[in-house]
Amino acid sequence: MSDHYDVAVVGGGLLGCLTAWMAARDGARVLLVDKDQVNQHASGQNAGSLHFQLEYRMVESGEEAARVAAEAMPLHLDAAAMWARMEDEIGEPFGVRQTGGLMVAENADQVGMLEFKAELERSWGLDVRTLDRSELDVVAPYLSPAIVAANLSPLEGKADARIAAPAVARAAVAAGATVRTRSQLVGAHRVPAGWDLSLQETSATGEEGTHTVRAAAVVLAAGVWTTELGRVFDADLPTVPLALTMTVTSKVPRFIPHLVQHAGARLSLKQSLDSTVLIGGGWPARLMRDADGTPAFDRKHQLIPQSIAGNARAAVKTIPALDRIPAVRSWVGTTTVAPDQLPLVGAVKGAPGVFVATGGSAFTLGPSFARVLTALISGHSSDVDLAPYDPARFAERSA
Ligand SMILES: Cc1cc2nc3c(=O)[nH]c(=O)nc-3n(C[C@H](O)[C@H](O)[C@H](O)COP(=O)(O)OP(=O)(O)OC[C@H]3O[C@@H](n4cnc5c(N)ncnc54)[C@H](O)[C@@H]3O)c2cc1C
Question: Where is the FAD dependent oxidoreductase domain (predicted)?
Answer without folding.
Answer: 6-376
